[in-house]
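Would you mind giving me a polypeptide sequence along with per-residue structure tokens?
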Amino acid sequence: MKSHDHRLNVADLFSAVGGAVGPDGTPVVHAGWSSAARDRGHNVIGYDWDQHKGKPIGILPDKRVNILNLTADEMIDDFGGPIDLLFASGPCEGWSMQQIGNTWKTPDQWKVGGRNLKRELNALRGTDEEYPEDIAAGWEPKNQAGINSQRTMQRTFDLIEDLREYNPNMKAFVENPVSVLRYHPTSFGDWDMANIQHASYQDPASSELFGISDFSPMLPERQFVGQGGIPELKPTDLFGYFPKDWTPRPRLKSSQNPLNDILYGSNVLYSDMPGSGEQRNLTAPELRQLLSQGGSVDFKERLSHAPELADSPDYPQLTDGKYWRSKPRGKSQGQWEDPKSIKTGRYGNKYYAAAPPGGRAGINELGPLTFMNRAGRQVKAPAYFTRSLIPYGEGLDAILATEKEHGMDISPAGQAVVSPREIIENFMRR
């Protein structure tokens, strides 16, 4: 076993608010890929260009740089040696599935293949099969968001490969919310891939279900984004080179029939909580709470007409048992509809916020974040950064598994080193 003074070199690309430190050099929020690594005494360097919409923010990352201009040689010089673990969470707007028609020209096979094509592409992961050239040729960005996203993600993967020439055992986690990237040739290569949900890595699920948070508890002086509320589910994909003692935490919401999961039969790593495929109707108090938080016109129309609220004195009047839905999602005009119950998963509003489309639950409630940067100056980071924060637990599992990989039994800061894989597997056997 290596002594506890062995410090790992940890790089955090696009570190933003999650990598911000205060005047004392410690993380300002209980979130971010690299916060757990800093807490555990490792050598962390965050890289970010510290801008939003062309304006400086004042986060003051360890290294202020445009990732597109960053090289592996520069990073090696920064650390004074090879890197052991790398995190990256680049901008995701250009990969949004909701904006695919505006952002990407898609292959002809995408239009006709639909779900079957997605399954076929997922099945290529972890095999010797190459991404089909004819499909790859059909992807083309249509606007600047698509161009920027493709360039940034490609540069991230290229940096990882360049760094692994110095250290072939370097581990890496590249995060992107479930999006077009999953099926785009940019993300295909000799990578591991996993699908997770952010809520599994945040309280209350993190503490009540898995207990891994006990190994790096939240410090009292640190900001907790969300004020202790229930987090958003946020399905997310991870790409990279994962430590052998890492495994994805079980998802809290899944397909009712596991065989219908788009990842079923692939080499993509994922697991599900027992009962995660079950559904239930939102209760009247839950519906009222969601309505009180506001949302889109369509959201309010659907929820206010739910049968569970029929006994309320202010229940809207129906016409022949139907209501007029003025702005249905995906429709160009309104239509008459029957009132329907609003559903959530078994663990909805317990471990993750029930957030029907158009609502303001979970992450949609988060606003700007104010904190003191390393120079002692007060900074107000836009809500964009608050809503993009990586849960602390994701970075914790990654650094714990990497410490295990390096044969450590105690972190440089003196905390116990445990295997996240063993904890999750033991939990799932119970």
